[in-house]
Amino acid sequence: MSLEIIGITVLWLFLFFYIIVGSIDFGAGVFNAHSIINGKQHVLSKVIQRYLSPVWEVTNVFFVFFFVGIIGFFPDSAFLFGSVLLVPASISIILLALRGSYYAFESYGSQGHRGYAFMYGATGILIPASLSVVLTISEGGFVYMDDGQPVLSYELLFTSPLTWAIVVLSIVAVLYISSVFLTWYASKTEDQEATGIMRKYVLIWAVPLIVAAGGIIFELQNHNSAHFDSILNLWWMFALSFVLWAVTLWLIWNKRKYGLAVWLMIGQFAFAFFGYGISHYPYLLYPYLTIYDGFTNEAMAISLIVVFILGMMLLLPSLYLLLRLFLFDPKYVKGKRE
Amino acid sequence: MFIDDPVLMSRLLTLLTLSFHIFYATVGVGLPLMIMLFHWLGIKKDDIHYILMARRLAKGFVVTVAVGVVTGTAIGLQLALLWPNFMQLAGHIIALPLFMEVFAFFFEAIFLGIYLYTWDRFDNQKKHLLLLVPVAIGGAMSAFFITVVNSFMNAPGGFEMINGELANVNPLLAMFTVAMPTKVTHVLATAYMTIAFTLAAIAAFRLMKGSHKAYYKKSLNVMMKVGFVFAIAAAIIGDFSGKYLAEHQPEKLAAAEWHFETDEQAPLILWGILDENNEVKYGIEIPFALSILAHSDPNAEVIGLDQFPEEHHPPLIIHYFFDTMITIGMFMLTLSFVFLVARWRNWTFVDKKWYRWLIVMGAPLSFLGIQAGWWMSEVGRQPWILRGIMTVDEGATTASHVDLVFFFFVLLYLILGVGTIVVLRKMFKDKPVEKELESYAGGDEQ
Ligand code: HDD
Ligand code: HEM
Ligand code: HEM
Fold first, then answer.
1. Which residues contact B146 (CB under 8 A, 6 or more apart)?
2. Cβ(B373) to ligand 1 under 6 A?
3. What is the nearest CA distance from A309 to chain B, expressed in angstroms?
4. Looking at CB atoms within 10 Å, which of A167, A291, B104, B357 has the fewest?
5. Is residue B168 included in any domain, yes or no?
6. Are the C-beta atoms of residues A277 and A135 closer than 8 Å to each other?
7. Interval A66-82: pLDDT, tens
8. CB-CB under 8 Å, A337 with B121
9. ipTM of the complex in this document
10. Which residue of B70, B106, B405 is in closest CB contact with A58?
11. What is the rounded distance in angstroms from the CA atom of residue B270 to the CA atom of residue B71?
């Protein structure tokens, strides 16, 4: 494997972690806001406090890891994406900051302000939507060069159906991932009511998810046919993803093995996400930047990889400890430990 | 929209974000160490007061860390958004410490999460205390790595430029530049010093309000001691920083000192104003002191601004930033020294109201010292973003709407800043020390 491939694989893997863990977090906020409207508040707020508060910072670091890593491995992407993303990325930062402030000010400080809970829920939809724009831009066609400087055309971006298809998918995916996970988590806490609610959400969002994903592939055909073709070449990955989706849905429909359902759901997204990533190869930004011409020098690449390996040796045991204490400790999960 | 100058607005936004983040970052570096100290004292002396201090501080820490994390994430992205050309170049040479920093964050975040949510899950308190060690190390490492990057910007190294192309990049050498040792240690020492004096200030304030005497007296005494130690360290390392500047960035030192002519036996000028002929008026002149600061020798020659072309002169305003920092450093050093001597000799004037007020002032002053230090260091690097290689104008984005983005970040930081203050106040007001101590005495731990 070349250094370029190692670099992008590591980054893509971390982005995948972020998408899964982040989606659980974002979706929980949305459901929480929704249940406040329905007056069924406490069911989910408890889950948010017990599970999400201790780990949200770690979730955030996955995101930081991705963008710091991509600047390290592919410095030219800092130039291209940095130049064009000023406004969209700033919106994401502000939303992320407002969301983080909820953890800072609300769940520790005073108890529950409704407006704040709504804001927290709303960011759960707006953040994935605003971050997903980066994926859209990377498909090419929205950035042009003006005197050597990349410029983003907002008009093209906001009138393209592809943009909106990706936005819809990102939101639906967040709700789906989150509800599958929370169904399992709620069933572990033996909270029947919450389990029932979350299970219903899974059933609601499962079909829109597949429709939205299909819609994107369809849109790509018009927008970027090279990418579309390489997706077709990888059809088996997407087919596997679809099968995993069907089995997950079947399990949840029949109220069986929620734990297994979570893993299958993760597998489903892994195949789709890596299928998408591999078919995007070798481009970071169509047609200006590939992973080869944007790559850093060899000395830097090797030292980054060495640091990554050392870092993981430190990190994996710590992460394991964290998960064991908060996610898999039966007493804590059921709320018997304060 | 308002000001259509991406370079200027990028500078202002960087100034804003960094100055805001540094408040929280300083807390993130310094506070875990103090919590650890209290927790340890509590276990060692079997004194519930110290344990409670650790516990209460940890609760407040949650709030500042969360804001530190979101503002830090903001800077991390803004660096690429506002300085894309710079990050492209720097990515090739100095990405390593930035990458390492992420692991420090991971480490800190994981163990902080565990520490905060497991107060009563360990039967052995010492084990719980151990969880803080990685938090304190993680915070210090974050500061270490980011300051390494900043040192590189002041004294680039670890690569060669051959015909405008990068060559022979050595990421490790780029990390260990000549600017690094003094910068990193000065930043760490001042962070610890600032947090110690801040906690002392809170204790002094609560004492004046008549809160729990024994509790706050203990806190005050310990923190003044710790603050004094780190204030000495800050001054000594600051002196080394001056020597570093004299050797490797003489234009910054000259601008900070309004030292226009290269001269031997140079005096140090504090404060004052410049008239139209660049003569200093109303300044306090300390003979030989600049030569001593720069070279440890009263007769040594100190390079002045006359050795540099006009366009490479840093802004002269950094003189005031420099003097603010030094004045504050000297003031805090004296204040804590007198306090310690008074305690030792049983003089009681330090328990008088006026002295307590001086201690209370120490908190905002120390934070101002940190800000002033960074402004002097960063503005003093002008016009360079990467000294001698890339100027700020070349590094900045060409995108439009930076002014609009700036405006929204001002709003964001207002919300975050006000929120922090309101929540922290509420948190401690609703649960005063007396109440919490009662719940312990009643054996009703929660
Ligand atoms: C409470 C904060 C504080 C205090 C009391 C001091 N400093 Fe400081 N100083 C800083 C906080 C700071 C800082 C914020 O940490 C800086 C900014 C950049 C850096 O490396 O550290 C800094 C930078 C800095 C520099 C510039 C380094 C550079 O640009 O590369 C010098 C020469 C000094 N300091 C010298 C001193 C001296 C002689 C002090 C005597 C008491 C002193 N500082 C006290
Ligand atoms: C990766 C590391 C860093 C980068 C890329 C960076 C970049 C910059 C740039 C481009 C500016 C604007 C220059 C100017 O307007 O004078 C600036 C200013 C500033 N930086 Fe840094 N910096 C870094 C690290 C730091 C650190 C660690 C601090 C400490 C808090 C800091 C504090 C400041 C301050 C206070 C200013 C405002 C100076 C001004 O008014 O211009 N910087 N920085
Ligand atoms: C260019 C300057 C800087 C950048 C790009 C930066 C970046 C960041 C990022 C991304 C985070 C959030 C990490 C997370 O998600 O957990 C963070 C937090 C933190 N930063 Fe900064 N930072 C800068 C300056 C500084 C400085 C000057 C210091 C210390 C002197 C510092 C110390 C910390 C600490 C201790 C944290 C942990 C959060 C906390 O405890 O408040 N950073 N920083």
1. B97, B98, B101
2. yes
3. 11
4. B357
5. yes
6. no
7. 888 888 888 888 888 88
8. yes
9. 0.83
10. B106
11. 34
Of A48 and B197, the structure prediction assigns the larger pLDDT to B197
Chain A from 176 to 235: CB within 8 A of any B CB: none
Distance (Å, rounded) from C-alpha B365 to C-alpha B370? 9
Distance from CA of B90 to the nearest CA of A (A): 8
Residue A304 with chain B: CB contacts under 8 Å: 95-96, 99
* A319–B contact, CB cutoff 8 A: yes
B1 within some domain: yes
Could you tell me which of A90, A88, A169, A158 has the C-alpha nearest to residue A130? A88
Residue B166's Cβ-side half-sphere holds a number of Cα atoms within 13 Å equal to: 23
Domain span at B375? 190-248+250-380
- Does residue B360 sit in the same domain as residue B401? no
Domain assignment present for B184: no
Burial class of residue B16, CB neighbours in 10 A (0-12, 13-18, 19+): middle
Q: Is B328 exposed, middle or buried, given 0-12, 13-18 or 19+ CB atoms closer than 10 A? A: buried
| Structural domain of A118 | 3-333
- Please count the structural domains in chain A: 1
Q: CB–CB of A265/A183 below 8 Å? A: no
Point out the residues of chain A with pLDDT beneath 70: 40-54, 107-113, 327-338
The structural domain count of chain B equals 2
Beta-bridged to residue B165, according to DSSP, are B162
Domain edge (last residue) among B332, B348, B380:
B380
pLDDT at A41: 61
Q: Alpha-carbon distance B434 to B431, whole Å? A: 8
CA of B239 to the centre of ligand 1 (A): 9
Alpha-carbon distance A167 to A144, whole Å?
22
Of B89, B95, B110, the CB nearest to A58: B110
The sign one gets for the Cα dihedral A200, A204, A207, A212 is negative
- Ligand 3 binding pocket (C-beta < 6 A) is A 57, 60-61, 64; B 18, 21-22, 24-25, 28-29, 65, 68-69, 72-73, 75-76, 79, 105, 108-109, 139, 142-143, 146, 187, 191
- For the cut 90, the answer to whether the pLDDT of residue B370 exceeds it is yes
Spatial separation of the C-alpha atoms in residues B417 and B23, rounded to whole Å: 10
Quick check: is A338 in a domain? no
What does the alpha-carbon distance between residue B48 and residue A273 come to, in Å, rounded to a whole number? 53
For residues B103 and B97, give the distance between their C-alpha atoms in angstroms, rounded to a whole number: 10
Q: Does A307 touch chain B (CB under 8 A)?
A: yes
Give backbone dihedrals phi and psi of B99, rounded to 5 degrees, phi first.
-65, -45
